[in-house]
Amino acid sequence: MAETTDQNKPIIWKELVLGFAVVESCIYHSIRTIPIVTASSAEEVLFTDNLTRLTKLDSDETVKGVLPVPFPTYEVTGAMPAEGKEFSEVLLLGYEYPGVESPDWIEVLKREVANPRRCV
């Protein structure tokens, strides 16, 4: 069994969610939500797409409104270091809401990584 170092441990990130943008698509006749999250440092802005999520709308999409969330609500993402790769795939694991018990995010991450049917 290989020795576990800090470089081999799963990583979990929590980002503050300010609300969810409601986006309508005219082509697909659908509505989706996009979380509006903050970056906690200038470094995070460089390595995440948090600040550009709303600029990635398709040409047929429009923002219809914003759904508020209770404070503090967090978007939880994680990554499992991969052998021989500098960066690992970052997976959306879920959301944490105040007053709601959160799951063991490391276990959720392990299930997501092992799930061959997950969306990519």
TrEMBL record:
Top-level taxon in the UniProt lineage: Archaea
Protein name per the record: Uncharacterized protein
Species of provenance: Methanosarcina flavescens
